[in-house]
Amino acid sequence: MKKISIVIADDQMLTREGLRTILDLEDDLEVIGVARNGQEVCEMVDTLQPDLVLLDIRMPVMDGISALKRIKQNHPDVFILILTTFIETDYIVEGLANGASGYMLKDMDADKMIASIRDTVSGQFVLPAAVAAKLAARMNRFNEEYEQWQRSTLEQIKLTDREEELAHLIIKGLNNREIADALHIAEGTARNYISNLYSKLEVVDRAQAIVRLQSII
């Protein structure tokens, strides 16, 4: 059975060696290298080409996020688990955005840690409940801020009488020909009105326009 080869990167010797001891007790896991900083782990991955890297966030010389970016750029198939003792949403988002396969807390039980490594190599995404809760809270705040921005933007959009008339016809689902007939104008003129309204609403098609107009009218 091929063992899962692992490189550990952490600036704390006790953490590095403690993890090595725990993982080397497993028949299917093998720690093939330990690094003290981001620069070392990047060079180690280039040389050893492990299956997985346990990567601390805060390290000297090169931090974990910078190392993550470099490793994924040069070795996109290497799995990377962010290894940390703290949960900061900025690091969570940045790590995931740059290709991390998940997060692993340093105070996790050994059994959960080992299971997380196996799950990661099998293609699963690993996110402890505490990290997931932080990420969910961050997303909720983002959604609230976006909705507030959207409401503020919509409040600033003022439609003329003609545009309001046109908007009601669009919401009803009338096509360009039907809108032209309803407004007693040429179809080409109706298309121009609709195009100008799209620009004002900052939308690109009828479906988007209807959604935005329903929020305004």
From TrEMBL:
UniProt xrefs under InterPro entries: CheY-like_superfamily, NreC/VraR/RcsB-like_REC, Sig_transdc_resp-reg_C-effctor, Sig_transdc_resp-reg_receiver, Tscrpt_reg_LuxR_C, WalR-like
Highest taxon, organism lineage: Bacteria
HTH luxR-type domain mapped to chain residues: 152-217
rRNA processing in keyword set: no
One example GO MF annotation: DNA binding
Alphabetized CDD domains for the sequence: LuxR_C_like, REC_NarL-like
Location of 4-aspartylphosphate modifications: 56
Keyword Oxidoreductase: no
Keywords recorded for this protein, A-Z: DNA-binding, Phosphoprotein, Transcription, Transcription regulation
Domain Response regulatory: 5-121
GO biological process, one term: phosphorelay signal transduction system
Name of the molecule in the record: DNA-binding response regulator
Source organism: Paenibacillus lutimineralis
Lineage: Bacteria, Bacillati, Bacillota, Bacilli, Bacillales
